[in-house]
Amino acid sequence: MSPLYRATHYGMKNSVGYLIRRSTNLILPQMEGLFADESLTFSQWTVLMALREWGQSTAADVARHICHDAGSLTRILDELEGRGLITRVRSETDRRVVALTLTTKGLSTVENLLPRVVEFWNGLLGDFSHPEVKLLIKLLTRLVAAAGEQRILPRRRRAFSAPQHENDLGRRQRRGQQP
Amino acid sequence: MSPLYRATHYGMKNSVGYLIRRSTNLILPQMEGLFADESLTFSQWTVLMALREWGQSTAADVARHICHDAGSLTRILDELEGRGLITRVRSETDRRVVALTLTTKGLSTVENLLPRVVEFWNGLLGDFSHPEVKLLIKLLTRLVAAAGEQRILPRRRRAFSAPQHENDLGRRQRRGQQP
DNA sequence: ACTATATCGCTGCCCAAGCAATGATTGCTT
DNA sequence: AAGCAATCATTGCTTGGGCAGCGATATAGT
Lengths: 179, 179
What we know:
The first copy, chain A, is mainly alpha-helical. Helix content of chain A is 58%, strand content 7%. Chain A starts with 15 loop residues before the first helix and ends with a helix.
């Protein structure tokens, strides 16, 4: 209830959103450089990491976990499959889904690149103590959870005066259960 | 020095990068919805906020603060100027730069929208205590600072085996002082 | 004073990512 | 069983943002 932010005091440099956006725009291009010699996009890297993490998975699942558009993901998978890094196998039980698996080549690619990424992050978080990192992760996890909840329930949002113009949340509501 | 991450234990769901990307992809579209009835993009909103924050500024400055490409910013400014939200005035002392100012209309637009944004963030951070928010902000600020330092000095990066292929960091080095 | 280099704003171009629509499939409801 | 809604993967379309290049200007080096 107690408002954490006041409009009058609201400043960009102190806003969480600003900081997150800024860190994304700063860090992401740098990471992109890490995979340049493997000609891997950051998004492609993320997909490979997701498969390494959760083993076999489906495209829709990966898209949800990465918060990535499913349409774009299809093209990424095309590329990765063409290079022999993953395999696509139509599921037998549910013939809609395609099971994604990391090939041995794909796995070794990830394993080769991973130390580089780890080292990059160690450098980035060099000034952070171990508990601080854990704290940051914990806070961000909670933030993501809160943002996720707000997204899953697109209707009945009374937080802000609902925008109901041309191209607003109507699109997003399509994903929901609303007709 | 002490490594915060180990490659063997490295998991996506615990990685700061993953969380930041995820929160961006979750939060940003939601914020976009906040400005839909004003037909404002999130980037446009950010520019207006930046001008409100720092008063008069130049395009290059704003681009740097927002971590946004200067080229794209030009088009955003075109749009905002066309709508009478900002003014572009060529500087007298340095005729390269263009001074950006928020018009009264632009200022009122920001002020009208701001409570909505504040409310949105209050909802998002509802589970956070005040100190927690301050902590998150402090940690993110440090992260941004670290990422910024690493970017400003593109040369002499021994963190990872320097990729020197076709389209790698050469682009990024262009920003530096290197010829 | 003159050249070289950097900066500024701007434009054209390209690519990645999101949106909408589609066909196939599955599950739910009645 | 039968219709209806939801899900899945995929494709075309559109857009937003990054990159390279440009002319104009400013500054540093000599």
